[in-house]
Design goal:
Layout (H helix, E strand, L loop, with lengths): L1 H31 L2 E7 L5 E6 H6 L3 E6 L6 E8 H8 L5 E6 L4 E5 L9 E6 L2 E2 L9 E3 L11 H6 L4 E7 L1
Parallel strand pairs: 1-10
Antiparallel strand pairs: 1-2, 3-4, 4-7, 5-6, 5-10, 7-8, 7-9
């Protein structure tokens, strides 16, 4: 009798662990659908487009290594290039108003969206960025690749904890 109770207890424990793992997978799947970036285009053909991490990744990944004034040592960043995001949205002119989760805002000219220019990073050093580590999104320029990226104007455009972009045309 005690032997059967041990077997039954082990089965119940295994079922409980399996159920918890299944719920964890469901929670993970739900978080994959989390909107990280909202882009609002103002003007005659106004629109709003939202992006999850997977949708940003589908636009193409760009990676580079650079030092920043906010971190220590060379950092590896991966994200979608601002150029590719703007091309996806069909934008060729305007001013971007980038907004962080704390409502900090900065203007980024669309002319910055060039090949070899800034990215909207969602990974730093191969890891997803948390809010605590300047994520989940951070506009990062390849500061080491071009001396013109090492200016106060560019540093001010390097907004972290990015959540939205309003495009004024």
């Amino acid at each position: 009798m005690i032997r059967w109770m041990n077997v039954l207890g082990a089965l119940v424990l295994a079922l409980g662990v399996g159920l918890m793992l299944g719920l964890g997978a469901s929670a993970q799947a739900a978080s994959d659908d989390t909107v990280l970036l909202t882009v609002q285009i103002e003007g005659d053909d106004a629109s709003t487009t939202t992006f999850t991490r997977d949708q940003l990744m589908a636009l193409g990944q760009t990676s580079f290594e650079t030092e920043t004034i906010w971190t220590s040592g060379t950092q590896a960043f991966t994200g979608v290039s601002l150029k590719d995001l703007m091309a996806h949205l069909g934008l060729t002119s305007g001013v971007l108003q980038a907004r962080a989760i704390n409502d900090y805002m900065v203007e980024v000219p669309l002319s910055d969206a060039i090949e070899g220019g800034p990215i909207i990073a969602y990974e730093r050093n191969g890891k997803t960025m948390s809010v605590r580590s300047k994520g989940p999104l951070w506009i990062v320029y390849p500061y080491d690749s071009n001396p013109s990226y090492k200016t106060e104007a560019i540093y001010s455009r390097s907004i972290w904890q990015l959540e939205g972009i309003n495009v004024q045309r």
